[in-house]
Design goal:
By secondary structure, the chain is of the alpha+beta class. The chain contains 10 helices and 4 strands. A hairpin with a 2-residue loop joins strand 2 and strand 3. Helix 1 crosses helix 2, helix 1 runs parallel beside helix 5 and helix 2 packs across helix 4.
């Protein structure tokens, strides 16, 4: 009986995983990322990857993740108790079958295109009305189109922008599909009159716009930054 219970319960767990894969995908997460993160949340392993920021930085995904964490902890306790023959006598197999059938029914309903469209609209409407812009990850705010590009450009001694202003290097920048967001200089962020401020070595220039435009205009500076970072030693020698 315990083996049958475990088999049915594993079916329930699999169905719950697929249900939440669908729900995460409806919030805009990629399918392969959704499945990995759902399994990570349920098992409590592997959720320290960089992709976890896609969950933590999204309020709806955080709520879904909370349920998965709790369900995973509960499932682990149930499985351990079953293996240890510590199941309650009043726990009947038909009750578990009803639960499994309910979970499978929910999964089948979520696979319907009509239901997915309704839920997707509901999630988006909730995001529009209740979520602060600052709560959203950068990807959901800036990178909404395929050509969108956000660049943190480090300025070095040989950079074309070093000791110059953006206006001096790029003519008619107002007509181009990019903007300078701010300049980070040490702990200070410069947001005013950015295009006329002389950029220094060590500054970080944050740019947003079309990828092709930015990579073309700042091609040399990007190359210098990449080469400098690539040639930097991983461990600084002791002096």
């Amino acid at each position: 009986m315990n083996l049958l219970f475990l088999l049915v319960y594993f079916i329930i767990i699999t169905a719950v995983i697929e249900i939440f894969v669908v729900l995460f995908r409806l919030t805009g997460l990629k399918l392969e990322v959704s499945r990995f993160q759902v399994i990570s949340l349920m098992t409590g392993t592997g959720f320290t990857t960089g992709e976890s920021e896609l969950i933590l930085g999204h309020p709806i995904r955080r709520k879904l993740a909370t349920f998965l964490i709790l369900f995973g902890a509960f499932s682990l306790a149930v499985i351990i108790s079953s293996i240890s023959n510590f199941l309650s006598d009043d726990l009947r197999i038909h009750d578990i079958l009803y639960l499994a059938a309910s979970v499978l029914l929910i999964f089948a309903v979520l696979k319907l295109t009509v239901i997915q469209n309704l839920l997707s609209k509901l999630f988006n409407r909730k995001m529009e009305h209740t979520i602060e812009l600052g709560d959203l990850p950068i990807r959901d705010v800036f990178l909404t189109e395929k050509e969108d590009y956000l660049l943190n450009l480090h300025i070095y001694k040989d950079s074309s922008l070093a000791c110059k202003t953006i206006n001096q290097v790029i003519n008619n920048h107002n007509q181009l599909e990019f903007i300078a967001l701010f300049i980070k200089r040490g702990e200070m962020k410069i947001r005013r009159n950015i295009y006329n401020i002389k950029i220094r070595e060590g500054d970080q220039l944050f740019l947003f716009g079309e990828k092709e435009v930015i990579t073309t205009l700042f091609k040399d500076d990007i190359h210098i930054m990449e080469e400098t970072i690539r040639n930097q030693p991983l461990i600084k020698p002791l002096s």
